[in-house]
Design a protein that fits this description.
With 349 residues, the chain is an alpha+beta fold. It folds into four domains: 68 residues, Roll (SH3 type barrels), CATH 2.30.30; 72 residues, no CATH class; 142 residues, no CATH class; 45 residues, no CATH class. It has 14 helices and seven strands. The strands form two sheets. It has a five-stranded antiparallel beta sheet with strand order 4-3-2-1-5. It has a two-stranded antiparallel sheet with strand order 6-7. A hairpin with a 3-residue loop joins β2 and β3. α6 packs antiparallel against α7 and α6 runs parallel beside α8. The relative contact order is 0.07.
Length: 349
């Protein structure tokens, strides 16, 4: 496979999928990521991982090599460890435990590494935060909120955490994932301040996503025509196989749409060669824009504040009647059932 195409691929180091490799710096300034498998007086033979399952070899003249930067296994492994902190917001105890295990494994497998001190510092940070999470705290905005503070403001804090995740998805142009996440957010945290705050951004995301879908729909006929034209140029046997594959893909798309409709997913998965998915998304998007624009013009009461006020009243109430009244006020203000249950548990103390 020593072709010009391979040479191009091999020299593009960022595109090579290396599990463990040295970096060979060449006279022309290019870099080759690979592993030296043999050498003689004048040449190196470099093994390069082109894909996860395909390797190839390239012979390099030693006179063309400026230097070889040998990869140290511990440094490569530490890169993954260093990425574990700072810990993102709203992670649970299980996710902390997985990060702690990864650092402990590094320290076990790379004893004496120059990165051991940094790894131990990372481990200490993870364990400290994990203990606070296990005690009932939560991380948001890069800070750990104590268990007591979290219980007193759980609805607002949870809503804020989910809002941040949706913002991150939109920021990385993952519009479908963001819109699906908002569907759950809308169900669980409607009436909170974070919900009200994100509505303008969500309507923008819907408009952008619908524009993308509309563009795909506008190109549908051409895609189908190009596909059919390609089929006519195939040999008979190849065309039959391709037509069978296309029929199977369309059947899968139809079934997936049916399943997503039954699950009331709302935002269905777009299939470029199945027009109903695009039409359904555009219709649903129009409905959502109308609904959310109305919500923007008529913001509800702040359910997060209602929860916080009720929690404080319950904590300071001297009798059961006052505590029951506080729960009732929260229910009237639109506090979701999950958080009403928390208030009721506190009232029943």
């Amino acid at each position: 496979m020593k072709s010009g195409l391979f040479t191009t691929i091999a020299l593009l180091a960022p595109l090579a999928l290396q599990l463990s490799a040295d970096t060979i710096i060449l006279q022309d300034g290019s870099k080759l990521e690979g592993r030296i498998v043999s050498q003689d007086g004048e040449h190196y033979v470099i093994e390069v991982q082109v894909t996860r399952s395909i390797k190839d070899e390239r012979t390099i003249a030693k006179k063309d090599v400026v230097r070889i930067e040998q990869e140290k296994p511990d440094l490569k492994a530490f890169e993954a460890i260093a990425a574990l902190v700072p810990v993102p917001d709203m992670l649970g105890a299980d996710q902390y435990a997985a990060r702690i295990r990864a650092v402990e494994q590094f320290l076990s497998e790379h004893r004496g590494s120059n990165k051991s001190k940094e790894a131990r510092a990372i481990l200490a940070t993870l364990k400290q935060e994990a203990n606070e999470i296990l005690a009932g705290g939560v991380k948001i905005g890069g800070n750990i909120v104590s268990p007591a503070d979290y219980r007193a403001n759980a609805l607002e804090i949870d809503a804020r955490g989910q809002q941040m995740k949706i913002r991150d998805l939109i920021g990385s142009s993952q519009f479908l994932a963001a819109l699906r996440a908002f569907t759950e957010f809308d169900r669980d945290f409607k009436g909170t301040q974070p919900h009200t705050e994100i509505l303008p951004l969500i309507t923008q995301a819907i408009s952008q996503y619908m524009a993308d879908v509309q563009q795909q729909l506008a190109g549908f006929d051409k895609r189908v025509a190009d596909r059919d034209a390609g089929l006519t140029r195939m040999r008979f046997a190849d065309r039959r196989n391709s037509e069978a594959a296309i029929a199977e893909q369309l059947a899968d798309a139809e079934q997936r749409l049916k399943t997503e409709r039954e699950a009331r997913l709302g935002w269905v998965t777009i299939q470029p060669f199945y027009k109903p998915t695009m039409e359904e998304s555009l219709n649903f998007g129009k409905q959502e824009l109308n609904r959310l624009n109305n919500a923007i013009s008529q913001p509800p009461a702040d359910a997060g504040k209602a929860y916080r006020d009720a929690f404080q009243k319950i904590k300071s109430a001297a009798d059961e009647k006052a505590r029951t009244a506080a729960v009732s006020e929260a229910r009237t203000a639109g506090v979701p059932d999950k958080y009403l249950a928390t208030l009721q548990a506190a009232a029943n103390r």
